[in-house]
């Protein structure tokens, strides 16, 4: 595939264009998109025009660019998380009905928790986890629940490269978090992302007893009822696992 003067391929440039859209920003001006993607304006215009012909991007009047509906359609049609989300949704709705708070579902992607589903209601506490959003393993109860049930080799690799950009958490602290979550069967973090909230998450295992997701809730710190929350989450996680096995 043809390369640019900088040596990157057409695929590289297309990926950079799509990744340039920030979370929560549905559209960008063509010039800003080129700047964010680090591409010349002429190359950006040509690629956007070609991608818009396939519905992957939408080029509007005045040079406004949006992600195309065709991109959303293709991703969701064959997403590897589709079966997981379908299996989890009834159980997530039950948990939310009881707690009236945020419920989320995450998978492990690299050293981050990638949130693939979230239910929330008006009046629930703040929750930084967004659908298709990511959080580092060490600041997310879902991330800790996921990593704590991975192989020792993967955990060792994660801890070896671990570095908190803010310098508040060491690898030894995270190692303690992971050991605690593995022993208890759930992970919890209080006031890490938001000072008034508490995150609790449990692993979801498939029919082969492999951890494929984490089911979590975010509740007010003052209303924390660990002895009631954990069994409810674990029961729901087992139900999701049975649906995946079927």
Automatic annotation (TrEMBL):
List the Gene3D superfamilies hit by this protein, alphabetically. Answer: 3.30.450.40, Winged helix-like DNA-binding domain superfamily/Winged helix DNA-binding domain (1.10.10.10)
Query: Which InterPro entries does the record associate with it?
Result: GAF-like_dom_sf, HTH_MetabolicPath_Reg, Tscrpt_reg_IclR_C, Tscrpt_reg_IclR_N, WH-like_DNA-bd_sf, WH_DNA-bd_sf
Q: Does the keyword Transcription belong to this entry?
A: yes
Domain IclR-ED stretches: 70-246
A GO molecular function assigned to this protein is: DNA binding
- SMART domains in the cross-refs: HTH_ICLR
Domain named HTH iclR-type: residues = 8-69
Report any Pfam family annotated for this entry: IclR_C
Q: Which UniProt keywords apply?
A: DNA-binding, Transcription, Transcription regulation
Statement: the UniProt record of this protein carries the keyword DNA-binding: yes
A GO BP annotation: negative regulation of DNA-templated transcription
Q: What is this protein called?
A: Transcriptional regulator, IclR family
Q: Provide the species name.
A: Paenarthrobacter aurescens (strain TC1)
């Amino acid at each position: 595939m043809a390369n640019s003067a900088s040596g990157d391929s057409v695929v590289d440039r297309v990926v950079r264009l799509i990744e340039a859209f920030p979370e929560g920003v549905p559209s960008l001006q063509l010039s800003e998109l080129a700047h964010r993607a680090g591409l010349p304006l002429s190359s950006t215009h040509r690629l956007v025009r070609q991608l818009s012909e396939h519905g992957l991007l939408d080029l509007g009047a005045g040079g406004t660019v949006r992600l195309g509906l065709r991109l959303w359609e293709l991703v969701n049609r064959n997403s590897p998380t589709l079966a997981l989300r379908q299996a989890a949704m009834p159980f997530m709705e039950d948990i939310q009905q009881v707690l009236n708070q945020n419920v989320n579902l995450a998978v492990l992607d690299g050293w981050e928790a990638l949130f693939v589903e979230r239910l929330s209601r008006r009046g629930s506490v703040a929750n930084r986890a967004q659908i298709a959003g990511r959080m580092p393993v060490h600041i997310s109860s879902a991330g800790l629940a996921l990593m704590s049930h991975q192989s020792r080799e993967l955990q060792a690799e994660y801890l070896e490269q671990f570095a908190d950009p803010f310098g508040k958490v060491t690898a030894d602290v995270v190692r303690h978090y992971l050991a605690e979550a593995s022993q208890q069967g759930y992970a919890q973090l209080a006031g890490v992302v938001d000072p008034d909230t508490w995150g609790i998450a449990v692993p979801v295992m498939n029919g082969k007893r492999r951890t494929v997701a984490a089911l979590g809730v975010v509740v007010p710190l003052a209303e924390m009822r660990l002895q009631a929350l954990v069994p409810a989450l674990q029961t729901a996680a087992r139900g999701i696992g049975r649906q995946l096995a079927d």
